[in-house]
Every structure is written in structure tokens, then in C-alpha cells.
Amino acid sequence: MDGNGFFPRETPVADLGLAELLGALSHALDITEGQPPGHCVRCCWIGMHVGREIGLPATVLRDLYYTLILKDLGCSSNAARICELYLTDDLSFKRDFKLVGDSLPQVVQFVLGHTGLGAGLAQRFRSVLNIFQNGGEIARELIETRCQRGAQIALRMRFSQEVADGIQNLDEHWDGGGKPLGMEGESIPVAARIALLAQVADVFRTSHGPEQARAEIARRRGSWFDPKLVDAFARVAADPEFWKTLASPGIEQAVFALEPAQDRVALDEDYLDDIAAAFGQVVDAKSQFTSGHSTRVALYADLIAERLDMSESRRRWLRRGALLHDIGKLGVSNAILDKPGKLDDREWFTMRNHAALTAAILSRIAAFGELAQVSAAHHERLDGTGYPLQLDAAKISLETRIITTADIFDAITADRPYRKAVAVAETIEIMRKEVGRAIDARCFQALEDVLANTPMP
User: Fold this and answer.
1) Fold of 269-453
2) 71 tagged catalytic
3) In terms of Cα–Cα distance, which of 367, 275, 274 is closest to 14?
4) Bridge partners of 416?
5) Cα–Cα distance, 55 to 195 (Å, whole number)
6) What is the DSSP string of 374-421?
């Protein structure tokens, strides 16, 4: 950043590996699932060791690697439905649900402990009754939505059908008691069988320690899990170094080193665009009120940047930043995102924290250092009263000002839980009052020019 608070006009794309990029972005999936950061990466460590132990060939190991890193790609798509059905916080629901097995007492205790705790007694009773009467179909619907959406996004990210199938069948069980299709035995893709085992192992290791993880995997042998995979896991888990690395700060680098060398994928500009667009879709799937938001903000930002004579290469970089600007919202419960009324102080604090989460997620990628700052600052204001860092005009880049303008425009012209969409002409007048305080004058003028000369979707 120069003395005027602006970044240089061009930022070359650094040499970035696919595993590093996906490993960092998978942290966004972790927080959506209510898991401690690094859950998908740790699952990859566990699952790849199991895959190697049973002698999977290199091509299958490659598909397994990306299945494990991306197993939760569809995680945002059922969050709103969970809040609606269970009257609860989707993040804590998802976190605790991963600890639930098949026993009826466990299931009953979970439902009673997670349904409508903040609702009125009558409303809570109706919700609990609905779940007990229709629990099987509800679970199938939630899992099917999540897994199908994840598989679709994986294909859009250029991964093989085998990776997509691994993600889509993550919740099937060896004995046929899983969902959504009730597949059993070896009809379940091996990547899915290993990914589910790795998921359970990491969740129990995180909450109760390695010994409990080993015991839980053994307990589900022949029911949830393929017996030969359980036996392979037992052999792998007998090595103390396996657990030591899993709990170490160097786990990410250890997992990146496991990527099958002969199949490493180079990232070019087009592939970076595809991955940014895919994760933008993950973000937008979190709520019906944000459907398409990231894509539209990227479009508006690009049109504004073009009007300001920004180079094509810089505009391309900016589109990625716009697509990922709200990735931190994956860490905000839909009970807050979709709330129809005013947020209380605690909820507002959580909502505002999404900008800091965006910075934390994107800054994990060394080559995205600048992008993280630009994207995360989209709620900063020129008058210094924004968040998360209360930056003033001198420290807010042109690129951030463009994203902010596009974001505000789309937020006002789209439906929100507390109001209907506002017409474009009225939106412009609302925004005009914020020029010089929240909105940059040049960016606002460029937006007006774009609206006057470009047919908008």
C-alpha cells in the first residue's frame, strides 16, 4: 500500500498449489459445520493414511485426497432449513450432531437438547413433535440437500465424478442404515466410506481425545464403517506419531505433502476464477436472502472498475475479491442471518465479525494477502466509523471502495429478511446520502454511469 492508502495497480498471481488453496478455503467449511479450524485438513490426514494402508492405487488416492478436503462443500445449503425445523442455531446443531450415533436415547437426547430452546413452550412442543413424527424424512432431506449440492459444486470446480460421488455419498453407512439412499457395503464409493470414518475420528478426537476416537470407530465397525477400513485405521492409529502430527501446528504442511505428487494440479487464472466462483456459491447458499449476492456484487464491481479504467488483469483480481468478500458469513448462524427483526447487541456483534472472519480465512493463503485485506474491508467507511478496523479514508483502497459500492447497491436492491427489495431509483437516492461518508464519490458516479448505459439483470 502506498502513502495514500492505495494498493499498486497490478498484483501478480503468486505460485500457488491447489492443495494449499483448498486447504485454506476448507477452513470456511469447518466454521459452517461448527468445527474447530482445520477439521477438513485433519480428516485428510486421517483418511489418506487409511487409504494408503489398504493399498489404494495412486489415481484413487488422488480422488480420495480432494474428497476429504472438500467433503463439506455443500454444508451451507441446509443451514437455513435446520434453523427453520429445529428453531436453533445451525452452527452448534451441526457441531453436536456429528457426535450422535444410532442409539435411540442419544437421538432423543439430542433432539430435546437442540430444539426450540429459545422459543415459546407451545412452539417448541410443535417442533419436537414434528421431528419425532417425521425425523427420518427430515434427516434424509437435510443430508440429501447437503450432499447433492456439494457434489454439484465439486464438478463445477473441475473435479472428477469420483470426487463428486465421494462427497455425495458421505453419509451412507456400511450396513445400509445411512442416508439419503440407504446404500450399503461396497456399493458405497471407497472415498465416501473413508471420509465418513475420518470425520467421526476427528470429531471424537477433538472432543474426547485419541483413545475415545479409536473406541468410537471400533464401536461402529460393521454398522457405519467397512470392517477392513476400521482395521486399517486401528493399525494406523497405533503409531503415536500419527496423533502427534495430527495435533501439531504443522498439520497443514503435512497434509499438503500428502497430495499425490504425480497428479498435482497447477492453478492458472481460469481455474482460480472457477474456484472463487464456486466458493461464492457456497457462501450464497447459506441463506435464501443472499442467493446470488456474491455473483451480483462481482458483476457490479467489475462494471464500476471498467468505468474507472482499471486494467483487465486488475479487474479479474477484483472479481475474485468480490466473489469471496462475504466468505466469513459462513461462520454466522442462520438464526442471525435470516432473522426478520432487529438484531440485539450480541447478534449484531456476531454479524459484524463476518468481516474479520473473511480476513482470517483468506489470509491463510499466502498469495491472497492483499485480497484478504481488500475483501474484508468492505464494511469500512470513509468517515472511520465502519468495521472491523475503523479504517479512515486514507487507509481504504480503491478496490475496497468499489466492492463496498457494489455490495451496498445489491444489498438494498435485493430482498432481506426484514424488508422487500428497494427499486433502483430509490436505492440510488439512498446511496447518494452516504457519498463521502460510506461511499466513494468516484465509485458512486461510475455506478450511476453503469446503470444509465448498461442493461442490468
Assistant:
1) Hypothetical protein af1432 (1.10.3210)
2) no
3) 367
4) 419
5) 16
6) HHHTTT--TTS--SSS---GGGS-HHHHHHHHHHHHHHHHS-BTTBPP
Number of CB atoms found within 10 A of residue 440's CB: 22
Q: Write out the H or E segment, with its range, that includes residue 111.
A: helix 104-114
Which pLDDT belongs to residue 263? 56
Q: What is the pLDDT of residues 184-201, one digit of tens each?
A: 999 999 999 999 999 999
Under the banding of pLDDT at 50, 70 and 90, the label for residue 273 is very high
DSSP letter (8 states) at residue 116: S
| CA distance linking residue 412 with residue 423, whole number of Å | 8
- Cell of residue 334, nine digits: 442462520
Residue 123 has pLDDT above 50, yes or no: yes
* Domains 18-77+145-263 and 269-453 alike in fold: yes
Strand partners, 17: 266
d(CA 132, CA 148): 25
Cα angle value 350/356/362 (rounded, 5°): 135
What percentage of the chain reaches a pLDDT higher than 90? 76
pTM for the complete prediction?
0.90
In angstroms, the Cα distances linking 258 to 189, 333, 357, 457 are: 21, 33, 27, 44
CA 105 to chain centre: 31
Q: Is the pLDDT of residue 7 over 70?
A: no
Rounded Cα gap, residues 132 and 124, in angstroms: 12
Domains of the chain, by residue range, sit at 18-77+145-263, 269-453
CATH of domain 18-77+145-263: 1.10.3210.10
| Position 166 pLDDT exceeds 50 | yes
Contacts of 15 (CB under 8 A, 6+ apart): 367
Cα separation, 218 vs 198, in Å, equals: 13
Three-state SS for 43-108 is: HHHHHHHHHHHCCCCHHHHHHHHHHHHCCCCCHHHHHHHHHHHHCCCHHHHHHHHCCCCCCHHHHH
Reply yes or no on whether the pLDDT at 146 is more than 60.
yes
DSSP category for residue 266: B
Beta bridge partners of 439: 435
Name the pLDDT band for 17 (thresholds 50, 70, 90).
confident
Kindly report, residue by residue over 341-381, the tens digit of the pLDDT.
899 999 999 999 999 999 999 998 888 889 999 999 999 99
Q: Could you say which of 329, 342, 420, 433 is catalytic?
A: 329
